[in-house]
Specification:
alpha+beta, about 25% strand, binds zinc ion, DUF448 domain-containing protein
């Protein structure tokens, strides 16, 4: 998956989003459960935002409560 510019609900603007690294995908699974599909998740790279959302237009995932902490890269 390539980085893409898409809307971030936290920044309230269009920001560059990047795919999660393996470490970050593992971190999300620890928070959300091992069965969560994390392959399409992207992270806002705008400043220190680091909010997670799904790449597609799906409602199954609620990224407003999930933010990758500093140091998980
Ligand atoms: Zn953001």
């Amino acid at each position: 998956m390539q980085p893409k510019d898409t809307y971030c609900v936290f920044c309230r603007s269009t920001e560059r989003h990047v795919p999660l690294t393996e470490n970050q995908q593992r971190w999300v699974r620890e928070k959300k459960g091992a069965t969560l599909y994390v392959g399409d998740l992207i992270m806002c790279a705008g400043g220190t935002c680091r909010k997670v959302r799904s790449s597609g237009n799906t409602r199954r995932f609620h990224p407003e409560f999930l933010r990758i902490p500093e140091g998980v890269d």
